[in-house]
Specification:
Length: 201
Amino acid sequence: MLARMTTTLFDSPLARPLLRRLSLVLLRLTGWRVEGELSALAPRCVVIAAPHTSNWDFPYTLLGAFALGMHIRWLGKSALFRPPFGPLMRWLGGIAVRRDRSTNLVASSIDALKAAPGPLQLVLAPEGTRAHTTQWKTGFHHIARGAGLPIQLSYLDWGQRRLGLGPLVEPTADVDGDIARIRAFYAPFRGRNADQFDRGG
């Protein structure tokens, strides 16, 4: 089950410019560079977040989203939204997922995306776990195609300390072919725990 989407810090017209500047400064001070920009063709899209191998990916993803002027939402297990941190997680774009009721997660995500107003980028980790896996989950593809949205490729490359946005991908009926092409884009990148990111097809 997917909780409803609420207003977040990314939607604040007063805070966004300040947070963008602050994020760029923090990233520069920690040795990271920001690459790319959100396409004018993708004010609403599904964003792939990869490689995902560490809890440290989360704060850098938030900094990158602020730096790139994005309006992100992300899915998290319901335990993350328990008191006292629940309001903060929602303010940071989190949407609680009840995994024991997640059989219709794709359908409810499609409905939520269609119903939500304004710019919105739903961030999903296709690996589905920080642990090593050789298979990517296909939910992000089905959500994007069902909602009629492009897939924005984003990356956290710990090897070269760069984060950013790559190309847009229009999902097709050839799910396996699309995912193979997307995974090829991520082959050069390294996760924080490099041995946990599989570059295979």
